[in-house]
Amino acid sequence: MQQNAKQLAVQINKSLNDLGVPINSRERALILSKMLDIPKQQAWGLLEGHALPDDILMRKIATELEIDPA
Questions:
Q1: Where are the domains of the chain?
Q2: What DSSP string describes 7-69?
Q3: What is the model's pTM?
C-alpha cells in the first residue's frame, strides 16, 4: 500500500503542477481539499503519499485531475 500511496502522490502533484497550483504545501493542500471537497488533513495525506483514497474519492481524483485510477 505504501508504494501505491507514494505513486499516487507523485501523480497528484504532477497534475497540480500542470494546472499551475502553487508548490507551497499548505496552499496546495488547501486547494486540493477544495477541489475534491475533502478535509485539508486528508488532502495533505494524499499529497505526501501517506494515505490512499477510497474508491469513490479515487474516481473523483481521476476525473478532476485526469489521473488513471488503475
A1: 2-65
A2: HHHHHHHHHHHHTT--S-HHHHHHHHHHHHT--HHHHHHHHHTS----HHHHHHHHHHHT---
A3: 0.90
